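[09:14] KT: can someone run the structure on this one? pasting the chain below
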Amino acid sequence: MNRSRFPCCATLRPWLFAAACGALLPAVEAKAVLGAGADTVQTDQARFKGVRKQSANGTMTTHEISLPDGSSIKEYVNASGIVFAVSWRTRLKPDLEALLGAQYAAHAAAQGAPSGVAASKRMRSIRTADLVVHQAGRMNAFGGLAYVPTLVPVGIDAETLR
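[09:31] RB: done, structure tokens below
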């Protein structure tokens, strides 16, 4: 005889425990910082336990880190060795403060302004003289691009980076 008042709870306990543990674990955060050196790319690769693929042309180097869950982060480095843009396609919302570094304060200030229809579609674009951020997302699918216009190499259209 089952002594529990709720027999279904006995079969749900392992699932509830797993869900609770998952909720308590911190989300993976990226540390490539706009305006920082290219060494942040290697730091991210180690943190994510991802596979990094690198491609270069004369004016920039693209580092794509593929994560075990299928997510990817691309970090764009100019010829001076500075990260000028970061794009992401991830399952979890990235930590923008970590991605944007010193630029985060400008992002947070600009984000406070209402954006009307764009907010209802879960898309957000912010454009200032020092920072451009495009982001969109829904459950298990977040994507975006952030760049510093003054660091973008000549001849590169940052809006086409993805």
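[09:33] KT: thanks! The chain has one domain: 28-155.
[09:34] RB: yep, looked fine to me
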